[in-house]
């Protein structure tokens, strides 16, 4: 290629009888272009060949390598030196441009790596995925990582082979090691080493290695901090729930226990009670015992639902199959409240666990009865909306504040104004929410203070 370029320029200039100065400039341009696009070695070869052609074809006497005029020796030497210097400068600029492009690519890969690392907040998950992230980001043959607290080495491929001793040495000494194209870099947070990373078969600068070590170290520490924060929040939430449970259960258990204790004391301390009085006291004991049993049952059921250890018996049913038994279950709470039922004609069946949905409706109906004024109407509506079966229970109670509507389905939460106005543990709506969502449905409330509340849940229609 170099000889072809030289021959072409020489032939054109010789045929057109171009003067030596113009020829020299054209050869210099060719040398610069060769250095810029092909490298220094090609440019040097072209400079030497061009010097020879310049002497043979353009400096008198023409057709020989002899130079008659001493000034032409100076011109020839100046041409050769200029060609060599220019090609060297062009090569240097080309290398600097290549290094700049390489640094830009490394910065882009570091950014891509940081984005992938920030998306992972679990330490174990991060350590398992990190070698693959590094390998993909920097086009490496493989990668491996280990941290100070563990002896486990996490690899990008299970069968990846590398110098484990060098990796451990980088962790212990805190100094990077380079073996050919394999890099072993410590993971640092300030002056503290938290692990070591091996990057195999990659072309990386020392600055990029340091950046990778700091970036990966920060990602590991961030994941640990997020985990610790989550654990602290879980502990705080657990403490909050425990306090709420103790507050609710203490209040709810005290009432039936007080009734049972008073009735038993009256039976034991008085021998002058007639049969009717004894029967009334025994009825109180029986009723309060049932209430205690129900409270314990709700707490046990909530624990089961929270753990996910339950299965749904999903079968196509009409909503009436769950509604009618639920009305019977909530009869005592609805006593004194007229109940209006509005069920659209021709409703399709829904695939439900009829006993669970019966329980959901029972909780909603009991709440409507407990929190509505005596004689206030409770309305039940069932209709298809947006391809789902929507069931609503509307009451004429005091309503729920907008702020509390977001928490009304939380475990043990009861409205601040209704907490002691009616019996309950605050678990009914939480149970209803878990059951409805397990069916693939949604549940919510629309309420206005002083105007009552409408609790609604939607269920997907049975296919076919």
Q: Give the overall average pLDDT.
A: 77
Strand order of the largest sheet: 2-1-5-4-3
Instruction: Report the β-strand fraction as a percent range.
Output: 15-25%
Distance between the termini: 75 Å
The count of DSSP E runs of length 2 or more, i.e. the number of strands, is 12
Radius of gyration: 43 Å
Major beta-sheet overview = 5 strands, antiparallel
Write the layout of secondary structure elements.
Layout: H1 2-15, H2 20-37, H3 40-58, H4 70-118, H5 123-138, E1 142-147, E2 154-155, H6 164-173, E3 177-179, E4 182-189, E5 192-200, H7 206-269, H8 275-307, E6 315-317, H9 320-329, H10 331-334, E7 339-343, E8 350-352, H11 354-371, E9 378-385, E10 388-394, H12 402-405, H13 428-438, E11 442-448, E12 452-460
Parallel strand pairs: 7-9
Antiparallel strand pairs: 1-2, 1-5, 3-4, 4-5, 6-8, 9-10, 10-12, 11-12
Description:
The protein is of the alpha+beta class. 58% of the residues lie in helices and 15% in strands. The chain has 13 helices and twelve strands. The protein has helices at 2-15, 20-37, 40-58, 70-118, 123-138, 164-173, 206-269, 275-307, 320-329, 331-334, 354-371, 402-405, 428-438, and strands at 142-147, 154-155, 177-179, 182-189, 192-200, 315-317, 339-343, 350-352, 378-385, 388-394, 442-448, 452-460. It has a five-stranded antiparallel sheet with strand order 2-1-5-4-3, with helices on both faces. Helix 1 packs parallel to helix 3. The relative contact order is 0.06. The model has no long low-confidence stretch (mean pLDDT 77).
Short description:
This protein is an alpha+beta fold and 464 residues long. The chain is 58% helix and 15% strand.
């Amino acid at each position: 290629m170099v000889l072809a370029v030289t021959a072409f320029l020489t032939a054109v200039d010789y045929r057109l009888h171009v003067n030596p100065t113009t020829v020299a400039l054209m050869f210099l341009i060719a040398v610069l272009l060769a250095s810029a696009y092909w490298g220094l070695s090609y440019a040097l070869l072209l400079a030497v060949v061009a010097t020879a052609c310049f002497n043979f074809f353009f400096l008198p006497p023409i057709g020989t390598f002899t130079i008659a005029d001493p000034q032409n020796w100076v011109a020839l030497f100046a041409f050769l030196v200029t060609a060599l210097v220019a090609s060297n400068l062009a090569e240097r600029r080309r290398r600097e441009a290549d290094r700049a492009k390489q640094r830009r690519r490394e910065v882009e890969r570091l950014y891509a790596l940081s984005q992938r690392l920030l998306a992972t907040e679990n330490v174990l998950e991060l350590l398992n995925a990190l070698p693959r992230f590094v390998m993909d980001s920097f086009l490496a043959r493989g990668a491996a990582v280990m941290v100070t607290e563990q002896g486990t080495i996490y690899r990008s491929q299970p069968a990846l082979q590398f110098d484990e001793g060098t990796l451990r040495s980088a962790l212990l000494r805190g100094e990077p090691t380079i073996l050919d194209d394999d890099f072993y870099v410590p993971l640092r947070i300030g002056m503290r080493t938290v692990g070591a990373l091996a990057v195999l078969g990659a072309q990386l600068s020392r600055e990029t290695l340091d950046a990778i070590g700091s970036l990966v170290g920060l990602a590991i520490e961030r994941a640990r901090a997020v985990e610790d924060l989550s654990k602290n929040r879980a502990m705080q939430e657990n403490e909050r729930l425990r306090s709420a449970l103790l507050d609710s259960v203490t209040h709810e258990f005290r009432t039936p226990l007080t009734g049972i204790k008073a009735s038993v004391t009256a039976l034991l301390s008085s021998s002058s009670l007639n049969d009717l009085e004894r029967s009334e006291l025994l009825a109180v004991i029986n009723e309060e015992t049932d209430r205690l049993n129900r409270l314990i049952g709700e707490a046990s059921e909530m624990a089961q639902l929270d753990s996910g250890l339950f299965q749904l018996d999903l079968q196509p049913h009409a909503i009436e199959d769950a509604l009618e038994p639920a009305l019977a279950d909530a009869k005592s709470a609805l006593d004194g409240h007229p109940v209006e039922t509005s069920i659209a004609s021709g409703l399709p069946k829904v695939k439900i666990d009829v006993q669970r949905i019966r329980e959901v409706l029972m909780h909603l109906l009991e709440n409507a009865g407990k929190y509505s004024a005596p004689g206030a109407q409770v309305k039940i509506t069932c209709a298809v909306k947006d391809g789902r079966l929507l069931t609503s229970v509307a009451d004429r109670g005091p309503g729920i504040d907008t702020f509390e509507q977001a928490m009304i389905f939380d475990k043990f939460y009861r409205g601040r104004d209704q907490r002691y106005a009616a019996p309950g543990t605050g678990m009914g709506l939480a149970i209803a929410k878990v059951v409805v969502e397990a069916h693939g449905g949604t549940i919510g409330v629309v309420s206005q203070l002083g105007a009552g509340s409408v609790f609604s849940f939607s269920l997907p229609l049975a296919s076919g």
